[in-house]
Structures are given as structure tokens and as C-alpha cells.
Amino acid sequence: MKKIVILISGRGSNMEALIAARDAGNLPVNLAAVISNRPDAKGLETAAKAGIATHYIDHKAFAGREAFDAALAECIDGFVPDLVVLAGFMRILSEGFVRHYEGRLMNIHPSLLPSFPGLHTHQRALEEGVRIHGCTVHFVTPTLDHGPVIIQAAVPVLDGDDEGALSARVLRQEHLIYPQAVRWFAEGRLTLDGARVRLSAELDDRAAFISPLLR
Ligand code: GRF
Question: What pLDDT score was predicted for residue 90?
Fold first, then answer.
């Protein structure tokens, strides 16, 4: 079974979706540890209750990004993971860190990348007036919120949406596509072909996540 380390900074609902999928027998992986850069991350409690090893490494205790990233990598590598999953981990990672985990570092971002990298994606989508928004799971490269796309889910932007309504609609999709992406990785079905992710299957089931509106 593939070993997975999850990095969080806060609520941890995507982490919870991964735990729930594992508990339901839909995600045959070993969730080895959850690591947070914030001691007060709510997700740490959730992980501990689920019997998963938890750690926190306070980024404020380090002189700079490189020193924090080195300590983080040391902690992660102690678990010898096959995959590191960023689930609401709100730190920019140094190029050296990202290169160390090339092809085994995934992130979820609340927009249809390459649109709206960075923060406040839902508010920016509303301000731009886009009619379709969503979320993306991708392999991480040194460029922030960028990298080979594994899966995306699209949702409509409805008249009258505010940031809360839109983010909730997107989050429901995040909780579906992240376990799916990790499952594909665990099954050895994801391969990198340059900047593209290929999914080995007779039928690429990524199409199933396209909103019915778009079919
Ligand atoms: C999610 O919207 C995720 O896409 C983004 O940060 C948020 C984290 O939420 N990177 P949670 O901690 O998983 O609940």
C-alpha cells in the first residue's frame, strides 16, 4: 500500500475527505502522518482522532523559508512516503523542496487553473464575472499554483452567489476530486508525459467530473 503524508494549515476538510474515503474502503492507502505548520490547525485534532500520527512544525520558529522547508522535509522523509499531499497547506515552498518531491507532491487549488492562482480565488472569480469556476488537483512545480493537471471539477457561478455560496459549491467538488486523484496515484495509473498527466485506463474517467451543464 502506498504511504501518504498530508500537509495542512487549518480546517483540514480535504484531509477529512481522504480519511473518509480510506475508512469507506475506497482509498487503499496508508495515511502515515498529518503535518501542520500551525499548532492550532483544527485538522490536527481530526487526524489524531482518526488515529493518524500528527506533527506540527511552526514556520515562525525558523529564520527563513529554506530552514523551515529543510525541517519539514526531514519530518516528512522520516515517514518515507510515496506521496505528499498538500491539503490547504498555506506556505509557499522553496524550489529545492519541490524538486525533492518531484512527481510525488500534489496540491488542490480552489480554481480552474491556470485561472486564479494565489489567494481569494472565489472573490476574484465573482469580480471577473466568470460563469464557470471550480477546482484543480495538480502535481506541484516550483511555480505557485502551477503544474501538471491531474483532475478538475467545474461548477456554475449562479446569479446571487456570494463568496460563501460559491466556495461551498467548489469545496463539495474538492472533496470528490482529491480522493480520486490520490486513488489514481495509489493504483499507479498516473504518469507524467512532459507537462501533461496521463491516466492509464480504457476510458479516461476524468470526464465524469465535468459538470452536467457542460456536457
Ligand atoms: C481548500 O479550498 C483548498 O483548495 C485550498 O485551501 C482550502 C483548504 O480547505 N488550498 P481545508 O483545510 O481542506 O478545509
Answer: 95
